[in-house]
Amino acid sequence: MSRAPVLFRVDGTSRLGRESFYRSMIYAAALQRRRRTAHFLSQLEPFPYHAAAIRRSGNEVIPADHPAGSPEDLQQVIREINRIKPEAVIVDAPEAGESYLQELRDRGVTVISLDSLAATPFPSHMVINPLIGQQPKEYTLSRGTQLLCGPRYTLVRPEIRRL
User: Which residues pair with 160 in a beta bridge?
Assistant: First the structure.
């Protein structure tokens, strides 16, 4: 079984909010239980606080130089794919459109999109909707894309689950 890392492309800023970041942290914790390291390529605010949380959980953080979904960001993601050779790239950024995701898929890495908006066509290998509201018919998927949607795939942060 491969223990290659997983690369997360997710931001957590005051402008975009931090829910995507916390969602990705839940997945990273599950990967950590399976002895797989997560690398977070992220713009984070406040950076020291969130970077420390990532490192404390045994994962790595790479500061993103550009906003998610931009051409410059795509180039940085590709550089990181070539450098760390991840098993998968998990993108939780509504700004990452169809061409961005297709370019990542063309690199030969498994592309997983975390999405709750269904606002763009998805050429990803898998799309996960971690919320309850969206219906599968609202998504435009490429042939062969697996959609995980509905109450079975809802994410609940551990601190909420303990209540």
Answer: none
Decide: residue 46, CB within 10 A, 0-12 exposed, 13-18 middle, 19+ buried: exposed
Using one digit for the tens of pLDDT, what is the confidence trace for 64-102? Answer: 999 999 999 999 999 999 999 999 999 999 999 999 999
pTM: 0.90
CA distance 110 to 89: 6
Q: Which two tokens stand for residue 128?
A: 């996960």
CATH of domain 6-161: 3.40.50.11190
> What is the DSSP secondary structure assignment for residue 6, as one 8-state letter?
E
Cα 117 to Cα 35, 38, 49, 121, 136: the distances in Å are 31, 24, 28, 11, 11
Handedness of CA 144, 148, 149, 155 (dihedral sign): negative
Q: Which two tokens stand for residue 93?
A: 């950024």
- Contact of 19 with 92, CB cutoff 8 Å: no
DSSP 86: -
